[in-house]
Amino acid sequence: MTDLQTRFRTLDNLSAPNLWYDIEERAVAIQPARRRTTWVLVAAMLLLALAIGGAVLIGSGILKLPVTVEATATPTATAEGSPVATATPVEPVAATWTATGDMIEARVNHTATQLQDGRVLVTGGVGTATSEFFANILASAELYDPSTGRWTATGSMLGIRVGHTATLLPDGRVLVVGGGSSSDGNGGPLATAELYDPNTGTWTATRNTIGAGPGRTATLLDSGEVLLTGGVGENLETLAIAELYDPATDSWSATGDMADARSGHRATLLLDGKVLVVGGGLASAELYDPATAQWAATGDTSGILVGHTAARLSDGTVIVAGGMAGTGASSVAQLYDPSTGEWTGTGDMVEARTGYQATLLPNGTVLAAGGSSSVVDPVPVASAELYGPDAGTWVATETMAAARTGHTATLLANGAVLVAGGNDTNGSLASAELYVLGT
Fold first, then answer.
1. What is the SS3 assignment for 56?
2. Which of the 8 DSSP states describes residue 290?
3. What predicted TM-score, i.e. pTM, was given to this entire model?
4. Distance between CA 377 and CA 379 in Å, rounded?
5. Is-contact 199 206, C-beta < 8 A?
6. How confident is the model over 299-313, as pLDDT tens digits?
7. CA–CA separation, 355 vs 380, rounded Å?
8. Which residues are registered as beta bridge partners of 319?
9. pLDDT tens digits, 277-295
C-alpha cells in the first residue's frame, strides 16, 4: 500500500505533455511549405488562363503581333492569299532637266517674278533681232503656269525695257523699275516705273525714280518698302544713290547714299533685315540698315566682282561665286558671315562662269546653271553644278538641254527651277526647261 502511494505521488510530480502545443508546433512547421505549394498552383493557373486568352484574341484577329521582315526578304502569301509587305531599298533618282513650253517670244536680259498664285511673270528684255543694226527691245510680258507648263500673253508694259528690275510687292503686284531702251543696257536710261496687277493683267504708271538707268538692284525690305541701289545714270556714270519706294504712298524717297558707286552689283536681304551689297566692279561690300537708313562698310571680298551671283544660305551666310576675272570668267567662291562681317573662302566652282544664275534649292544646296566662260568671246554653256554648304564643295549635276547666258531662273512652289530664255550662239532663245532635284 505504501508502495502504491509512493508511485502516485511520483506521477503527480511529473508534467503532462501539452498536446495542443505539440499540434500547433507541427502546424507551424509545415505551413510555409503548404503556402508555397498553394501559390505555385495559383500562378500556374493564371499563366494557363493568360495563354488560352491570348490565343483566342490572336486567332480572332483582335490582337495583332508585330511582324519583323528582313530587308532582303521576298513577298510571301498569307493563308488568305494576300501578300505580306516587305521592306525594299529605295533607288536613288537622278536630277533631271525636262523641257517645258516655249515662251511666246524669245528674250534675253529679261526678268522673271513668281506671283503669289505660283505663276511666273516674264517681262521685257531683248528679243530676236529685227535687223543687223537695230535690236528688238521688248515691252511684252507673258505668264508661265506650272500646272500646265504653258505660257500665255498678258498685258504689255507701258514702255520697252532691258536690264530693269522686277519686285513682287506684299499686296501681290509687281513693281518694274528702270532699265534701258537699247540692247547694251547703257543707252536711253529709264527713270520710269510701273506696276503690274495680276488680277487684271494690266500695267499702270507709278512715280519716276530719282536716279535712272540699268544695272540697279531692287530689294524688298521687311517693312514692305523696296530699296533701289546704284546703276548707270543718264551720262553713263556709275551711281551711288539709294532710294526707297513705299507702296502705301506710291512714292520714292532718297535714303543714305552708298559709300561707293556701283553697277552690276548684288544686293541680298539678311536674316536681321539689313541688306548686303557687294561688287559692281569693286572688291568692297557694305550694309544698309533700314532702322537708321545708313550704310556701313563691311569686310572686303577677295577680289573685284562683277557678273557674279549672291545667294543667302539656310544658315544666314551669303555665298558669292563666279563673275568676271579680267577677260575671262572666275570660278572663285566665298562666304560672308553676318555675325563677324568677314569673308572666307570656300570650294571653287567646277567651271568658271559669268552671266549665269544661282538658285537656293529647298534642300539647302545652290544650283548654278549656264552662263559663259569668257567676256571677250562669250560662248554660252549648258553645264550646271550644285554647291553643298555642309561639305563646302561644288559638284557637277545634269546638263541643260540648251546652252544659255542672260537667262532667268525661278524657284517654283513645287521645288523645281524654271530656266527661261537667254542667248545661245545664234541669238535669243524662247525655250524653257525645268530642273528637278534628284534624291
1. helix
2. T
3. 0.79
4. 6
5. no
6. 999 988 889 999 999
7. 9
8. 311, 335
9. 999 999 999 999 999 999 9
